[in-house]
Amino acid sequence: MNEITPIFITAIVFGTIYGLFFLFVRRRERLTMMEKGFDPSLFYVEKPSTRFNSLKYGMLFIGVGAGILVGNILTVTTALNEEVAFFSMIFLFGGSALVLNYLLETRERNNNKS
User: Fold this and answer.
1) Rg for the chain (alpha carbons), in Å?
2) Are residues 63 and 96 in contact, defined by beta-carbon separation less than 8 angstroms?
3) Taking Cα atoms as reference points, which of 48, 72, 49, 64 lies closest to residue 98?
4) DSSP 78
5) Can you give the pTM of this predicted structure?
6) Residues ≥6 apart with Cβ < 8 Å to 101
7) Where are the domains of the chain?
8) What's the rounded Cα separation, in Å, for the pair 56 and 103?
């Protein structure tokens, strides 16, 4: 634990200095833009909707669970290595769940715009 302490202290000091510098530069930039007549509404960025987060994570975990199940079935029924079967199926099913979630979200957003 004593070997890691200087690394943590350095990271905290660097993070604090970087954070303060970032805030100072951002404030100075905004003041300069306002002095030159830019619209202050440019500073406010619209946050993305968190409406579909539970759907996204739910579909991801269902996909990972299905990947583990199919990976287990593949290790029992075929001569695949256990690691290959599990990792490939987890990534395949998890990725397909996220793609399906993207398609569902875009369809829902397009239906709400109409």
Assistant:
1) 24
2) yes
3) 64
4) S
5) 0.55
6) 52, 55, 56, 59, 60
7) 5-43, 53-107
8) 11
Q: Report the pLDDT value the prediction gives residue 1, as an integer from 0 to 100.
A: 59
User: C-alpha angle 8/11/15, rounded to 5°?
Assistant: 140
* Identity at 57, one-letter amino acid code: Y
Q: Which residue has the tokens 């202290």?
A: 9
Structure tokens belonging to residue 27: 């404030």
Q: Which two structure tokens, joined as six digits, stand for 58?
A: 């739910």
Residue linked to tokens 């007549």: 37
Q: Give CA separation, 61 vs 5, 49, 56, 83, in Å.
A: 36, 21, 9, 19
Ramachandran category for residue 37: left, alpha or beta (phi over 0 → left; psi -120 to 50 → alpha): left
Token duo for residue 61: 């975990």
Q: How far apart are CA 86 and CA 74, in angstroms?
A: 8
Per-residue model confidence as pLDDT tens digits over 49-99: 677 888 888 988 999 999 999 889 988 998 888 888 888 989 999 999 999
